[in-house]
Amino acid sequence: MIILEELNVDNWLETMELSISEEQKNVFPIPNVYWVGISRYEEKTTLYAIKNDETIVGLIGIGYDEDGVSGYINPLMIDEKYQGNGYSKAAMKSAIEKLKNDYKVPEIHIGHRKTNAVAGKLYESLRFVIFDEDETDYFRSLDLNQV
Question: How many CA atoms are closer than 13 Å to the CA of 94, on its beta-carbon side?
Answer without folding.
Answer: 21
